[in-house]
Automatic annotation (TrEMBL):
Keywords: Pyridoxal phosphate. Its cofactor is pyridoxal 5'-phosphate. The keyword Disulfide bond does not apply. Belongs to the trans-sulfuration enzymes family. Signal peptide: none annotated. SUPFAM superfamilies: PLP-dependent transferases (SSF53383). It comes from the Bacteria. The lineage of its organism: Bacteria, Bacillati, Bacillota, Bacilli, Bacillales. InterPro entries: Cys/Met-Metab_PyrdxlP-dep_enz, Cys_met_metab_PP, PyrdxlP-dep_Trfase, PyrdxlP-dep_Trfase_major, PyrdxlP-dep_Trfase_small. CDD domains: CGS_like (cd00614). It holds the Pfam family Cys_Met_Meta_PP. This is L-methionine gamma-lyase. It comes from Neobacillus kokaensis.
Length: 385
């Protein structure tokens, strides 16, 4: 099947043959006899046992997403953060070392600077773009190399192929957060990356109605993580959210195409506007990581960040002036969202660290939706004025 067909196709429900799967809102599953129960717990019978250990809606979702990201398996979590922290806690132990990129989502950065330290794991933050820049920071204790590409919110890129090659050579696993592009526009596993994580809250769901996370990888990574992280830590996605997410995914290509088309037009207009100092958008001709983009992205995506002349105050004023765009955090919704990273999503990162990651106090993040582009622009132009 071609990609769009893979997104849309549903499996007939084995129960009553319903076109769309029913929601299996059940905490537990009945065993016909004690022997079947024992076989299921021993992994000798494929049936379900208890919804923390597996549920038909969650399984259907995991199978679809594994195929969309070209992985052998997928795990669904109750949030993007549960997926990310589950990976680290599943893979690492005391004494291990992580190299993480400096430009990360605020809570991921906070987890790596605070929570993970309590478990005796060291983290070095490095602004690498290539394997060559990463290599000097890998030690014999380095088990994981972690980054976002594009990064939140500055949209800087990392060359996945070269980073994956060096990390593999040194015995470290690579984890990439692919939230900003979704599997429709980028597939890290095809570039040699070991593990992909998503905040499914964003483009995959697309309708702003749930919080969820996904981890996609090889069987030898997913299977133990399912047993240890999901079973023992229990940050699982609910059947209802799995069902909603599955339905959202079926229109990913159409939503992403439209948002991206709108973003391309808006980024160009913003770049020519006299109130704007700088625009970060991979689709602009002067985008600094153009060569990396061409190697690994199928499109620029639909996130735009821009720095206004006048800094913090002008940024706040702009957000209070827009009427069509919604002032809210999150991203990847069908409706356009606007927010101010320095005071919102990345406020938890100290100002000095934010500046190192390129997050200016006047930076505004714009998640472009699928509305009529002229309406979005009219509103933005009015607010910029
Ligand atoms: N990774 C990235 C790149 C994110 O942007 C977020 C959330 C997460 C992981 C965490 O996912 P969650 O647990 O929220 O599902 N990003 C947000 C943002 O930029 N605004 O609000 C949340």
């Amino acid at each position: 099947m071609n990609y769009s067909t893979k997104l849309v196709k549903v499996n007939k429900d084995p129960g009553h043959g319903s076109h769309i799967s029913p929601v299996y809102l059940t905490s537990t599953f009945v065993f016909d006899d004690a022997e079947i129960g024992a076989k299921r717990f021993a992994g000798e019978d494929p049936g379900f046992m208890y919804s923390r250990l597996g549920n038909p809606n969650v399984r259907e979702l995991e199978e679809k997403v594994a195929a969309l990201e070209f992985g052998e398996g997928c795990l669904a979590f109750s949030s993007g953060m549960a997926a990310i922290t589950g990976c680290f806690l599943g893979i690492l132990q005391a004494g291990d070392h992580v190299v993480a990129h400096t430009a990360l989502y605020g809570a991921t950065h906070a987890f790596l600077t605070t929570t993970i330290k309590k478990f005796g794991i060291d983290v070095t933050f490095v602004p690498f773009k290539t394997g060559e820049e990463l290599e000097p920071h890998i030690t014999d204790r380095t088990k994981v190399v972690y980054f976002e590409t594009p990064s939140n919110p500055t949209l800087s890129l990392v060359d996945m192929e070269s980073v994956a090659a060096i990390s593999r050579q040194k015995g470290a696993l690579t984890i990439v957060d692919n939230t900003f592009l979704s599997p429709y526009l980028q597939n890290p596993i095809l570039h040699g990356i070991d593990i992909v994580v998503h905040s499914a809250t964003k483009y995959l769901s697309g309708h702003g109605y749930l919080i969820g996370g996904l981890v996609i990888s090889r069987k030898d990574i997913i299977d133990p993580m399912r047993k240890e992280v999901q079973k023992n830590m229990g940050a699982n996605l609910s059947p209802m959210d799995a069902w909603l997410l599955y339905q959202g995914i079926r229109t990913l290509h159409i939503r992403m195409d439209r948002s991206q088309e709108n973003a391309q037009i808006l980024a160009q207009r913003l770049a020519n506007h006299k109130a704007v100092d700088k625009v970060y958008f991979p689709g602009l001709a002067n985008f600094e990581d153009k060569n990396i983009m061409e190697k690994q992205m199928k499109g620029p995506g639909a996130m735009i960040s821009f720095i206004l002349k006048g800094g913090y105050e002008t940024g706040v004023k702009l957000m209070n002036s827009v009427k069509l765009s919604t002032l809210a955090v999150s991203l990847g919704d069908v409706g356009t969202l606007i927010q101010h990273p320095a005071s919102m999503t990345h406020a938890i990162i100290p100002k000095e660290e934010r500046e190192k990651a390129g997050i200016d106090d006047g930076l505004v993040r714009f998640s472009v939706g699928i509305e009529d582009v002229e309406d979005i622009w009219k509103d933005l132009e009015m607010a910029l004025g």
